[in-house]
Amino acid sequence: MVIGFIALAVFLFLGLDADQASPSPSFSAASGGVKITYGSVIKLMHEKTKFRLHSHDVPYGSGSGQQSVTGFPGVDDANSYWVVRLQPGTPAKQGDSITNGTIIRLQHMRTRKWLHSHLHASPISGNLEVSCFGGESESDTGDYWRLMIEGNEKTWKQDQRVRLQHVDTGGYLHSHDKKYQRIAGGQQEICGVRDKRADNVWMAAEGVYLPVTEMK
Ligand SMILES: *[C@@H]1O[C@H](CO)[C@@H](O)[C@H](O)[C@H]1NC(C)=O
């Protein structure tokens, strides 16, 4: 009787598991070597300062007046999650790995707006402004970023050093220890800078990494 019950429980457990339509994502802190795929939800860490790329429903008080993007000092903030999305019309699909040179879009998870840049001046340093703009069905080429992996690996993985180059302006996603004083006190400026510098290197840190889909 007891054995029968256990067998049933095991059956139900396996049955439930097999019913899941999609592979279960793995939460991962810093295990390294995990591939970043389309649909993964990640935090991007600025290598030099360890601040996370962040946005929130607060507009810039200068430049475009669009939703502001900052560098955030804490690790645990839900406004630092970004969904790695495709360029519209690309043949790739959710779960595909991403190779060097690919153009991606980063969608801010909470507000559904896209990481965006353009020729407006950034608030503190007067470089290229980086904002969040558009929405689920509203996106343009100002949301396109080219993945550039440092080192020899061709496929994007967690903990790799990468740069993101904005396609329209050529600016690299950049941060530095220039901090906001008032509304976003303690947070630092994010902007675009056209020179390759040590301050435009990023790494995928915490996130929900969708496993790579198997080739059939
Ligand atoms: C990625 O591509 C860029 C040019 O787009 C190149 O400079 C860099 O060396 C490449 N990285 C790898 C790992 O192949």
UniProtKB/TrEMBL annotation:
Keywords: Repeat, Signal. CDD domains: beta-trefoil_MIR_AtSDF2-like (cd23294). The keyword Repeat applies. InterPro entries: MIR_dom_sf, MIR_motif. PROSITE patterns: MIR (PS50919). Pfam families: MIR. Residues 1-18 form the signal peptide. Residues 33-87, 95-150, 153-207 form the MIR domain. This is MIR domain-containing protein. It comes from Trapa natans. The lineage of its organism: Eukaryota, Viridiplantae, Streptophyta, Embryophyta, Tracheophyta.
